[in-house]
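1st attempt posting a full record on here, be nice pls
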Amino acid sequence: MENDIEKGSPADKINPADNSLIDKLRENIADVVMGKEEVVRLCVVALLAGEHVLLEDVPGVGKTLMGKALARSLDGRFRRIQFTPDLLPGDITGSSLYDPRTRQLSFGPGPIFANIVLADEINRATPRTQSALLEAMSERQVSADGETHDLPSPFMVIATQNPVEFEGTYPLPESQLDRFLLRLPVGYPDREAELRVLASHRQGEPVDKLQPALSREQVSQLQESVRRVEVEESINAYLLNIVDATRNCEDLHTGVSTRGALALYRAAQAAALVDGRSYVVPDDIKQLAVPVLAHRVITRGYLHGGQREAIEALIQRLVDEVAVPG
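the predicted structure (as C-alpha cells):
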C-alpha cells in the first residue's frame, strides 16, 4: 500500500470537492451535536454508504437530536415516526384510500416516503409493525395492494432505542437488526462539551435553526464516490478472516453472514472517503468491525443473549486475534 501511495495511484483519485462536502456536513451536524465527533462521523459514514443506523442508549443523551441534526443538514424531506404499541404497519408505509372523485382506491404514501426517516423508540412497536420497515430498508421500495412504490433517493432510516428499559418493549428480531449498517451507543459528552450545550440552549433549540449543508444531489454524488474507493485483495482477505473467526467461535451460536461481510466492506469504503482517502486500510476494517458486526451475531445462552457490552467485547477480542496484513 505504501508503494502505491508513493506512485500516486490511489491518492491521485481523491476528489477534493468530496472532502469539502463531507467536512461541511460534519461541521454542520457538530454545531448542535456537541462532544460526539465519532458518533457524527459514523452516522455520516452510514449515510454515504447508503445504509441505516441504530442509535442505542439511555434517554436524554442526544439520540433523537442526532437524527434531527443529520436530517436538517440535508436539503431533503424529513419525517419522524414515534413508535408505540398501537402503531400499525400502514401507519408507516401508507395505505389505499378511497377517492370519491375517481371512485377508486388510490395509494396514500406514509411517512416512510422521505429522505431521512427517524424511527424513534423503534422497539416500542410490535414485531409486526417493525417488519413494515424491512422491505423499505432493504429494497428502497414499499409494496401495497400488488403494486410497488419506489422510495425517494437518498433514503436513510435512523432508529433509536433504549437498551435499559424493557417494560412495554419488543426486542428487534435478527432480520431487522441485520438491516442496520451500524449500531452505535451515544454516551455522555465531556464537561466542556456539556457546558457548550447549556450555553447553546439559552435561546431555544439550536437544531431548529440548522440550515441544510448538502443537497440530495450532492449526497448521491458522494455515495457514488464511495463505490469507487479501492479495496485491495489483502484487505478483503483480512475482512473475511474476521468473519470466519465469528463463525468458528465457540461462544457464538451464529456468526456473521455474507450480508454482514458486505456491510463491513461498504462501511470501510465510506470511512476511507470520510477520512480523505480513496483506498481502504486495515484500520478501517478494525475500527468498524464492532459497530458493524456485533448486532449480527447470535450468542449462546451463557452470554445472557443480548448483553451488548459482552457481545461487543467478544467481537473486539476476535478482531484483535486476527493477524493484520502488512
